[in-house]
Amino acid sequence: MNRWFRLAVLVALSLVLGGGRCGEDEGVSLEELRQDVAPPFDYALYCDVQGRLTGKNSDVLLVHRSEHLERVYADAQRGHARARVLFGQLEAQAAASGHVVADQALGLVCTALPNCTVRWQFLDELIPSRDAGGMRLRHAFATSFERKARLKGVENAVISAVLSVLMVGAVVETAEVRAASAEARAVAAPGRKLVGGAGLAEGLSLEEAAALEARLAEAEALEAGARLPANLEALARHRPSVGQPPRGVAADNSRWVDYVAYWERRYEELAGTRQRPAGTLPVKPPLVWDGYDVFLGRVQRALAFERDVARVLRHEAGLADTQRQWLRGLERPLVTEHMGLAHEGRATLTYVDQFVVDEASLRPGRTPVVHCFSNKQRDFKPMSEKDLSNQLAVDAREALTKYGGMVEVRRPGHPLFGRKLTVSRVHLVYDGKDLTPNVKSKLILEARDLGIELHFHE
Questions:
Q1: How many other CB atoms sit within 10 Å of the CB of residue 383?
Q2: What gap in Å lies between CA 58 and CA 64, rounded to an integer?
């Protein structure tokens, strides 16, 4: 993002934080905030005896001085009248700032889709604290931004990016998966909705981050691990803090930071103060920390497996047809990952792991030839042959339901964007390291009877 535009947004935010007071036509630059050295804490630095903000840019400086901000928030939580008035103003102004950024959101992300990555990290510096007070302001900002952005028709991927940076620090974060880039937002590591997963989406395009977010949200909703109580009063007693991680976990551990943000968002969803998108699964209380840690570790391994499968497909795409195993019969295969597909009558998109189209079939008068690949890592060791057959039937049915039949391609920039077509073939790729050759051969034959093509990758 151009430096002048970054500073323009920062100035806009700082002016809103300052309440637009008369005579103040400048905000605090990012450079000034970076160079700021906080003096010893004193309420008089920021407000009068009643807690009303005073002094030029005092609110922006307070928000940026993490220790001072958390001191005010802690005092407010204890019932300190001056602190409550002061922090209440900050919270209201953070919400107003969300509106300002929503008004400019379409200009805050590059337009060379689909290979453009999100550039929102500078927002993270506006409210550097990730403890309770900072996260409270981030939530106020994020909620306001999301509501206004949706009214303006800002793209889901852009909304996801902003919420991700504010609440997680990564490009994954809302639970209603940012639909395709050119679609109006209506429907969120190893992201927004907050599932978490810092680092999972690093380097992904907007659409790929949206797909990852969708899958994280779905997987978390179906996760069978232990969860905290759904009762809000009981749940509040388990509120985590970035600065107080479990024993053996560093305070700056990215996954712990993710967990705190995930917990806070889930709390708001349960309390009804944060709207959930239509078509999502019913909200559940947050996973316990250990379960969340295991869950994201499993997601990371699954993503690594998918990347390996994608590499195999791209390698095959460059081979002659006689040398291929998975892409036979395609003249000029084009491999795309995490493609968003719309199905008639369904409110949300599905995201297929790999989407392959034969570019030669896109010539006028021809029917597009499209193959969809679903990747699955399963623990086959404890399964009997009957269990294996049953699992294959479940996975095949899911793949055909999500990625087969008539679909509409929702990836801007793809040659089939906006086209409705029938998927030619659905493939299932298993991690086959725990299966014998005889078992693999048996499952391949069963898969054909189920209407899919089965492959194994180790």
A1: 16
A2: 10
**Selection from 193, 200, 199 nearest residue 217 by Cα:** 193
Contacts of 80 (CB under 8 A, 6+ apart): none
Residue bearing tokens 């195999």: 312
At residue 452, the pLDDT reads: 97
DSSP code at position 336: E
Of 319, 358, 351, which is closest to residue 335 (Cα–Cα)?
A: 358
Segment 333-354 mean pLDDT:
90
State mean pLDDT over 212-222: 75
Over the stretch 20-62, which tens digit does the pLDDT of each residue have? 433 333 456 666 777 788 899 999 999 999 999 998 788 888 9
Q: Quick check: 259 pLDDT over 60? A: yes
Closest of 193, 113, 187 to residue 154, by C-alpha? 187
How many whole angstroms separate alpha carbon 6 and alpha carbon 72?
A: 29
End-to-end CA distance of the chain: 40
Helix 254-271 × helix 289-317 angle, to 10°: 110
CB burial string 63-90: b at 16+ within 10 A, e below:
bbbbebbbbbbebbeeebebbbbbbebb
Question: Does the predicted model carry a pTM greater than 0.70?
Answer: no
Domains parsed from the chain with CATH numbers? 3-286 (no CATH), 320-457 (3.40.1350)
